[in-house]
Amino acid sequence: MAAADDDDELRCRAAIREAFGDSSDSDSGKPGGASPPRSREQWRWEAVAGLRGLWLCAAFLSADEQSRLLAAIQREGWFSDELNQAMRFGDLPVWIVELSALIHEAICVGEVDLGCGAELTDEDEDACPLPSDLLWREPLFDQLIANRYKPGEGICAHVDLMRFDDGIAIVSLESPCVMHFSRAEEVAVCDALESGQAASTKIPVYLNPGSLVLMSGDARYKWKHEINRKPGAQLWDGMELEQQIRTSITLRKLLATPN
Ligand SMILES: O=C(O)CCC(=O)C(=O)O
Ligand SMILES: [Fe+2]
């Protein structure tokens, strides 16, 4: 191997160690100081009832991993008082590549909880947090947005742009929030009555720090998502959440553009 390749390899391994500890060193004997070994129990996937294609893994990252991820974001120097969003395309920082690999692993080995309200119409499609054609695409993600929200700041209801492929991941850090999902096209009142659903259903999902959300299919295309952090809007279990800084990382895959 050439010296330059050696340097790249060393830099890459150091960055991964910094972001996630030593667990990627297969010869270190133990699974890396602070990072515990991975198990099915740690990664429990919950299908959000009433919303096909929306999955939550509440304990995706340990407290240590969250701190390392925040430190990696800080080292990038993306945020300042004026700047609260960073976007990257193509070659992503190595710690993001590692985060993508961890998402892939969590999907492959995590335990799946379909929940009693989940609609099961197609076993293959509905029993996995990400359909297999998306899970095995290469790369899994090639675009990232990091957002940093101050108390009171959120994001308006939207469907992510169509230039992005299906299969979107959101990692939450620092403080919890409630993300609301509402239908992109309002269901006509009579259709809603027939299906027993309110025309303006809003489904709240609690995103704790360290959680991972996956959106595909209906959740990605037929539902809008929003975070309203105006006073009174962040209710969970009848209590208003205390507002603090929240950081999120959204990972997506650009669709190939026709030449
Ligand atoms: O910050 C979040 O959790 C969501 C971000 C989002 O929806 C987006 O960037 O499209
Ligand atoms: Fe979004």
UniProtKB/TrEMBL annotation:
Region (Disordered) residue ranges read 18-41
One GO cellular component, as annotated: mitochondrial matrix
Q: Which domain of life is it from?
A: Eukaryota
Q: Which residues form the Fe2OG dioxygenase domain?
A: 140-255
One biological process term from GO is: fatty acid metabolic process
Cross-referenced PROSITE patterns: FE2OG_OXY (PS51471)
What is this protein's record name? Fe2OG dioxygenase domain-containing protein
The organism encoding this protein is Zizania palustris (Northern wild rice)
